[in-house]
Amino acid sequence: MSNDVLRIGLVGVGGVCDAVHYPGFSRIPGVEIAGICEPSDALRAARKAEWGIDACYAELGEMLAEVKPDAVAIATPNVYHRELILQALEAGCHVMCEKPLGMDYAETRLIYEAAKGSGLRHMTAFTYRFVPALNYIRHLVHSGELGQIRHARFQRLQDWGERSIGWRQYKDQAGSGELGDMGIHRIDFAEDLLGPIVSLCASSKQLVPRDLTPDDDSCRPQDVEDWIAWIVDFAGGTTGVFEMGKLSKGFGPEGDHDQAELNGTEGSVVYRLHAPHEILFGRRGAPYEVRPVPEEFLKRAHSPRDPNEGEPVRTFRYDQAWEFVSAIREGRDCRPSFYHGMRAQAVADAILQAAEERRWVDVPEVSA
Ligand SMILES: NC(=O)c1ccc[n+]([C@@H]2O[C@H](COP(=O)([O-])OP(=O)(O)OC[C@H]3O[C@@H](n4cnc5c(N)ncnc54)[C@H](O)[C@@H]3O)[C@@H](O)[C@H]2O)c1
Hints:
This protein is an alpha/beta fold. It is 34% helix and 23% strand. The strands form 2 sheets. It has a 9-stranded mixed β-sheet. A 6-stranded parallel β-sheet has the order 3-2-1-4-5-6, sandwiched between helices. 47% of the residues are buried. The model has no long low-confidence stretch (mean pLDDT 97). Nicotinamide-adenine-dinucleotide binds at residues 11-17, 37-40, 43, 60, 75-78, 80, 98-99, 125, 127, 181.
């Protein structure tokens, strides 16, 4: 493992960069946040002052040329991911990029091939892989304690209100709506727990126009789904039922519902995001009981994060930066890599097709 300082550039310093990437990288010894790239003059100036970073640029090309970072973390609206990833790889940078990696499967395939060909490290920011409860459930599935998983359900229900939610509500900027925003995480962690999804059926709805901004100005109506559900067959025989929606009254603003439940032949488990340090565990004939997540699953190995520091529902996310940095230092693939971003997108494209055509669709093979 190299002890050299690893210099990171942050690209797009809006919501998720502030909440996850900046705090994640800034607590890792031997990592320097060497520059930021952000086209909004006001936000760039605010981050410069707040984070004390002098090297601030409006364009990635300038940052790459002047700062020469070892790696970048890209957190822009989805439509820009492809061009920024290709530019960073071209400059020899390892790349972590937010989900969804691209606008559709064809684009994520192109991104993956470019990253694979570069020999550099690549990572998709599937944050939920780092939830302690899901780490522990992965162990319980693989250890056989739950037996054969017969069926499972995955739900993300939130109340974002009925006004505009910005770039996320347009197909030409986001690729899809609730599916690419919340659904793609659940596709990824469901496959991480249960193996590949092979076929599915789906239904989606656009329930409201979102043609008013939060300040009462009118804006272009949304053209993506704000509710979506799908049923899948996993290759291993498990059936999965998924539902996501941003218009679920009763679940806001802090009470959003993120839950997964696996029912096996020997036992069942429940993950709930708001209680990331515990699971519910139940055996036949007995009600669910709370089981604390054992110490070894509370964080990634050797992560500098203290699992008891701050709000656990937020701080587990910092382990994502640790995984990226560790993979670079150890010269190994990131987990999850761009391959996983591409796999999840193949499933997402099949979901959109199934919803549109109102039928079951097979997920195509996704070669590495
Ligand atoms: N992994 C997660 O849990 C999670 C959570 C939230 C968002 N996201 C993803 O992160 C990405 C960003 O989401 P957000 O909520 O932070 O959005 P945001 O709108 O808050 O921030 C995006 C920022 O990118 C900047 N930007 C636009 N074009 C750019 C360019 N060419 N170069 C550099 N910066 C540019 C914008 O000015 C803005 O400040 C999206 O892909 C989203 O899906 C992931």
